[in-house]
Write a structure and sequence with these properties.
It is a single chain. The chain is rod-shaped. A hairpin with a 2-residue loop joins strand 1 and strand 2. Helices cover 67% and strands 8% of the residues. It has one domain. It has 102 residues and is mainly α.
Length: 102
């Protein structure tokens, strides 16, 4: 009698193991799909980051900024003799004594 119970237990456990393997395979496939989706998303973010870095490089070039300053803002480049250096210490404004006013 005990042998029959053990035999029935083994026979009944085989389908349970098979169902567990199928369930595990389904779970693995779903997780693998999620990994692939996240990898694609990561690639898109990395590519967007590269594009933005390239755009920042172009937009922050000194030649472009100088051109905008001259054309749009009406700035002009000063020679060193025309530059007045101002140093602020303790909230007070102090002009460079070596420069001429005006």
């Amino acid at each position: 009698m005990a042998k029959k119970v053990v035999l029935y237990g083994v026979v009944l456990s085989i389908p349970l193991f098979l169902l567990g393997a199928v369930w595990q395979g389904e779970r693995y496939a779903a997780l693998w799909g999620e990994v692939e989706r996240l990898a694609e998303s990561q690639e898109k973010v990395i590519e967007e980051n590269r594009r933005l870095i390239a755009e920042i490089t172009v937009l922050s070039s000194s030649a472009r900024i100088e051109n905008i300053a001259k054309t749009s803002l009406g700035f002009e480049k000063k020679v060193p003799e025309e530059v007045i250096e101002v140093t602020i210490k303790s909230g007070a404004v102090k002009a460079d004594p070596g420069s001429s006013g005006g």
